Amino acid sequence: MEILKNLHSYFAYIVLAILILAFVNALMGLLGKREFAMHKDLRISLFALILTHIQLLIGLILYFVSANGLQAIQTLGMGGLNSAARLLAVEHPFINILAVALITIGWSKHKKKETSNAKFKSITIFYGLGLLFILSRIPWGQWFS
N or C: which end of the chain has fewer CB within 10 A? Predict the structure, then answer.
């Protein structure tokens, strides 16, 4: 259990770094009006997509086996959770599932676009929203304690 929790926590740094890189790369491509390169832009975006899905999978496993996830809701009920417990049991998983869905939508939409500008725009918007959602529900108190 501790290994899974540490994996989820430390892997999050890597996922955030790659997701920020993918967002900034797409934003710079959009603002710089450059061509969408398959060897660079596609790979960065795809790598961010894959890592976020792996992190989600680890998080879902942790949610179902951890005392801070589903077991907390079953034990205390929704009304019995304090703000820290509610963050871990409800808000963090729900918002991060939405974030990964947005990132996936951005990836799917960019594949259907014909122009580089449209590809960069899809990735910038959806990866950016996903990143914003993820950053909003990270348990910062646990990260820096």
Answer: C
